[in-house]
Amino acid sequence: MAKVIVPVRIPERLWEEFARIARRRRRKPESLVEKMAFECVQRIADEELLAASESAARRAGLHRRNDIEEIIRQYRRQKARKANDGRTKTPNARSS
Fold first, then answer.
1. Hey, CA dihedral for 48, 53, 57, 60, is it positive or negative?
2. Are the C-beta atoms of 32 and 21 separated by less than 8 Å?
3. CA atoms in the 13 A half-sphere facing the CB of 57
4. How far is the C-alpha of 39 from the C-alpha of 42, rounded, in Å?
5. What pLDDT, on a 0 to 100 scale, did the predictor assign at position 87?
6. Could you write out the three-class secondary structure of the chain?
7. Tally of CB atoms within 10 A around 57
8. Cα–Cα distance for residue pair 93/86, rounded to 1 Å
9. Residue 15 burial (CB count, 10 A)
10. What are phi and psi of 52, to 5 degrees?
């Protein structure tokens, strides 16, 4: 990947903080800034994807997370009740 040099004005105190963190991590401050910028771009892309997914789910009428969790709890309770009643055993199961 080709690198582009872009002049950016950063307050001195912020740059000194970057340099301090970079020294602790035994890295160049420039590489730390590059890594953080990349992570920021990735996070923004992830947030946009999540927002688009949530919007699509709302349009499709899908349930919210809390609703889905409650549906799962109800399913597990019903499954446990059936297991306790002995109804989950298959009628053709062989006994040992």
1. positive
2. yes
3. 12
4. 5
5. 60
6. CCCCCCCCCCCHHHHHHHHHHHHHCCCCHHHHHHHHHHHHHHHHHHHHHHHHHHHHHHHHCCCCHHHHHHHHHHHHHHHHHHHHHCCCCCCCCCCC
7. 13
8. 13
9. 13
10. -65, -40
The reported pLDDT for the residue numbered 28 is 94
Residue 65, by phi and psi: left (phi above 0), alpha (psi -120 to 50) or beta?
alpha
List the chain pLDDT tens, one digit each, 96 residues: 788 888 889 999 999 999 999 999 999 999 999 999 999 999 999 999 988 888 887 787 766 667 777 888 888 899 888 888 866 555 555 554
Instruction: Indicate the Cα dihedral angle 84, 87, 88, 90, nearest 10°.
Output: 140
At 38 the pLDDT is 93
Length of the chain measured in residues: 96
The tokens describing 82, both together, are 């059936």
